[in-house]
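Bench log, entry 3. Co-assembly request; chain sequences pasted below exactly as received.
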Amino acid sequence: MNVSQTCKIEITKSLVSKINAVDFENLSFGSVFTDHLFECDFKNGEWQQPVIKPYAPFLLDPSSRVFHYGQAIFEGMKAYKDGSDAIWLFRPDENFKRFNKSAVRMAMPEVPEEIFMSGLNQLLQLDKAWVKKGSGNAMYIRPFMIATGGGVIANPSTEYKFMIILSPVTSYYSGEVKVLIAEHYSRAANGGIGAAKAAGNYAAQFFPTNLANKAGFQQVIWTDDATHTMLEEAGTMNVFFRINDTLLTAPVSERILDGVTRKTLIDLAKSENINLEIRPVLVSELIEASKNGTLKEIFGSGTAAVVSPIAGFSFQDIYYELPKIENTVALQLKNKLTSIQNKLEEDKFGWTVKI
Amino acid sequence: MNVSQTCKIEITKSLVSKINAVDFENLSFGSVFTDHLFECDFKNGEWQQPVIKPYAPFLLDPSSRVFHYGQAIFEGMKAYKDGSDAIWLFRPDENFKRFNKSAVRMAMPEVPEEIFMSGLNQLLQLDKAWVKKGSGNAMYIRPFMIATGGGVIANPSTEYKFMIILSPVTSYYSGEVKVLIAEHYSRAANGGIGAAKAAGNYAAQFFPTNLANKAGFQQVIWTDDATHTMLEEAGTMNVFFRINDTLLTAPVSERILDGVTRKTLIDLAKSENINLEIRPVLVSELIEASKNGTLKEIFGSGTAAVVSPIAGFSFQDIYYELPKIENTVALQLKNKLTSIQNKLEEDKFGWTVKI
Ligand SMILES: Cc1ncc(COP(=O)(O)O)c(C=O)c1O
Ligand SMILES: Cc1ncc(COP(=O)(O)O)c(C=O)c1O
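Structure output for the full assembly:
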């Protein structure tokens, strides 16, 4: 992988920076954006001149396909600043590949690697003052693509816009997370788009998640839609279960997003000699393990929340509380991961890429 | 139902009409829009002043939730001009109710009936010169709502835009339609959003539909995602099957859109004394009926295509051709329906509403 600067980008700088107006100690996740954005349009069958320009609203026709037929995909990744002010990306090749996998599934054009990588690189260079160092601080990076072609007929657009926007974030503290295991609602179908980071997958979860929130749960753990017996993933996280000293996580599938954090934690667990099984995990075995005291931990993994411990889960109106233990595997893996991301520890895996 | 004019709309007229530049004999479906659009924003927990203004692109922030999380719903309906230049809507209450059902499922605010109906009414009044009379001609009406609130965090927006745009259309001729029965891909999950007219449902179908197109089929008939044994619906149409003299169509469910044309055809079939069964229809019985010669017709129903006869279907690489028969039930029902819509026949059902 190579974060190239080879792609020629037309750059228009903003006249004044908004940075002084930002309270970096009190950032609400994903709500503040840097001075610039990267943009590249696709039309007449090809990608046009990429540009970097001041972050600003842009014009769209009311009949744009993204509004009517939901052709929209995105990625979520982070950049970190080390002690000597260098900026590092974490496994950007994985996000790039997944972005194009999503593009194919949503009948959208793939973005060339040079455009994706040089856009990322040069945008971060330009807004590097916005990347703060220190534990928990990161630049959340949001590459996304939308269908801009007009016409209210349900077929793929011929025009698209690929953009990258940047949002500085601090560590994501969500309080105690209790989850509801889905018994009726679902996020993905067999043969559907669950494995794509498609916009439509997220809105689909809001209503059932609101119901869970009202019942006192912060998240839903989705199950397979046909039988609701297999534990799949949370809203924006993959999930791990620890029974005795074995970590369990579902294999990725057409219904489950192939999370970068998930695959990283799998590699870290292996290198830490933690037992790990990648296999379908049943709701029934979770309940049994909770009852007989062998269920030790549940945690989610994702770019935004990193590793998020879960305090308990509910299924069929029964709440199962997890034991409060010290020295959790969740914390062990999280510390390993963030040390590598923040360049506090040698990256023997080659995951970090300097821009 | 009442197409009220009670809601006060702020109207800004366009200075020049685009109508003279339009070739009404050669309209490509959903590609031409009238001079004006209706718009109403939702913010601070309430709907704001509705406006009608010239059709034009509008500004959105790059972080708008519609781009990232797919909160977007729509409706599709038609208006018709009768012999004396009056304009009629067809069952607008059904579209209104379905729109708000979609809104609830996508965690979006419901649109008040006065706003929906007076928007529709006054917009059509203003652009009435664009509604052409004569068989097949209609004004396709596209109400839609998108999440406009900014922020790259996966939760519901607090701001929305509801719009109505109008596109004059002629009869929809799609040529001979051969369909592929889905064996792997799916459009909806149990407990998912298949029953909502959510933007994300459509983009999900583009890739498998492209594959079908390449194999020589114009449409896919979706099956249930768990077993692929039950016939559900086509891309933007519900489906009917005629075996001997009985019409069959699947019951609507969480996976299937409750089509207005479908329910209308059901009522028309009853009033024409056609046998009709609303029950799950199996792929296996379709194949058996095709083999033993009892399968007479398959047709799709939807606002855009009205009634669309299907020439044959493929399943597991075998193509089953339908008999070419005259006096089809499809044609009988289509003629009944369009006569009522175009006010050529008495509407004893009370489906047509004058604006
Ligand atoms: C549905 C879903 N599952 C899992 C994840 C975790 O993936 P990653 O670790 O690549 O961030 C995400 C998102 O970021 C997601 O949206
Ligand atoms: C998925 C789907 N099924 C069926 C239909 C038919 O519904 P209606 O008859 O209300 O147009 C439509 C759309 O218009 C649709 O989008």
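Chain A touches chain B through 71 residues (CB under 8 Å). Residues 177-341 of chain A form a domain with the D-amino Acid Aminotransferase; Chain A, domain 2 fold (CATH 3.20.10.10).
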